[in-house]
Design a protein that fits this description.
15 helices; 68% helix; mainly alpha; two-stranded antiparallel ribbon; Ammonium transporter fold; globular; 2% strand
Length: 431
């Protein structure tokens, strides 16, 4: 029964709005990282998730996550179409918040998670295949893990903790990204670098801003833990950004803005599972480790020639993974009495559970994603044609262009001319 608290409810509506803003932020972040002729393609993949994931969430997604239980893996369809939800229905974990608000808040997490994966296979995948992938991945990967970790499933029963989505969002998205890269293969035509770092900066700002709702809101009411999660989010992001910048500066001899931005996102992803369970000092450690480890994960990806176009595995997959493990090391009841102590506080079993959860979620997400892509490719081609890739997916798949050159600035025209000259030289060398 609902016992409405207007303060908690107002706070959660605000947090829901902040998390919603993260998906357009992701679209800007990814849009700036790709070349000019693929901007709209990567952005629509984020925005279509806002629409289609909402449809699935209403039809059966929420019910599979939070209604009933089948062997600890998935829920049932008792609340499909939000059946039985009314004005007096309360949130399952906090009866001072209407269930409608909890449904909306969790829906925003469902929207952004598959959109994260799209950065790995940018410029290569048909829109039809992406839409099918979106549906299948949510149904067979995301919804089960929400249930297992947050909906009363097997991992939650076992004692695994994940404050705001290190397993449920970042680790499974990152491993799915890696599987997608290995299945789809390399781009035939590699982008010559981000076409708009200012657009990446705008996206990073929106993501960082929205992440306060992502992490602090996961406490589901306002108390001291909420404040700690809020502060830890900012601390980890800031230290990770500076750590990435410093390492890149030493190795590449120049302080690069893009590295600073990427480091901040890595720090945000890494603190997510631990935000409400650790001290601000621990958040400093997590941020520093994240900035350094995720930087070298991206370097490893480059060395292995994995075409993870926008470093989803290196930032979100590795970030989520080390965040879950570091939660197992540093968790402290002193900063969340309702939480658990970690390895450094004498609880080695919790640390082992977190490690097993990382392994289990990684294998599930990787294998299911590979299987899905194989099945989708039997129905419709996953990889675009060479001609489509050369023309650019914006024009060939969607019939639109992000930049209309007849009215573009002189700078844009010069950049276009430079690209044409480079392509001409490449063709000459082939001849």
């Amino acid at each position: 029964m609902l016992h409405l608290d207007t303060g908690n409810t107002g706070f959660m509506i605000l947090c829901t709005s902040l998390v919603m803003l993260m998906t357009p932020g992701l679209a800007f972040f990814y849009g700036g990282l790709v070349g000019r002729k693929n901007v709209l393609t990567i952005m629509i993949q984020s925005f279509v998730s806002m629409g289609w994931t909402t449809v699935l969430w209403y039809l059966y997604g929420y019910s599979l996550c939070f209604s009933g239980d089948w062997h600890g893996i998935i829920g049932n369809l008792n609340m499909a179409f939000l059946r039985g939800v009314d004005l007096n229905s309360a949130s399952p974990s906090n009866n001072t918040i209407p269930l409608f608000v909890f449904i909306a808040y969790q829906m925003m997490f469902a929207i952004i998670t598959p959109a994260l994966i799209s950065g790995a296979f940018t410029n290569r995948v048909t829109f039809k295949a992406y839409c099918i992938f979106l549906t299948m991945w949510l149904t067979f990967v995301y919804f089960p893990f929400v249930h297992m970790v947050w909906g009363g499933g097997i991992l939650q029963q076992w004692g695994v903790e994940d404050f705001a989505g290190g397993i449920v969002v970042h680790n499974i998205a990152g491993m799915a990204a890696l599987a997608s890269v290995l299945y789809v293969g390399r781009r035939r035509e590699i982008d010559r670098g981000p076409h708009s770092i200012p657009l990446v900066a705008l996206g990073t700002g929106l993501l960082w801003f929205g992440w306060y709702g992502f992490n602090a809101g996961s406490e589901l009411h306002v108390d001291a833990v909420t404040a700690t999660a809020f502060l830890n989010t900012d601390i980890a992001a800031s230290f990770a950004a500076i750590a990435w910048l410093a390492v890149a500066w030493m190795r590449e001899k120049k302080p690069k803005f893009l590295g600073l931005l990427t480091g901040a996102v890595a720090g945000l992803a890494t603190i997510t599972p631990a935000a409400g369970y650790v001290s601000p000092t621990t958040a400093v450690i997590i941020g520093c480790v994240s900035g350094v480890v995720c930087y070298f994960a991206v370097e490893l990806k480059n060395h292995l020639h994995w075409d993870d176009a926008l470093d989803v595995w290196g930032v979100h997959g590795v970030g989520g993974m080390i965040g879950i493990i570091m939660l197992g090391i540093f968790a402290s009841k002193a900063y969340n009495p309702a939480g658990v102590d970690g390895l450094l506080n004498g609880n080695s079993s919790f640390f082992m559970k977190q490690c097993v959860a990382v392994l289990f979620s990684s294998v599930w997400a990787f294998c299911f994603t590979l299987g899905m892509l194989w099945l989708i490719n039997l129905v419709t081609p996953v990889h675009v044609t060479e001609e489509t890739e050369h023309m650019g997916l914006d024009e060939s798949l969607h019939g639109e262009a992000a930049y209309v050159y007849p009215g573009a600035s002189e700078m844009h025209l010069r950049e276009l001319l430079k690209e044409v000259e480079i392509e001409v030289e490449e063709l000459k060398s082939k001849l």
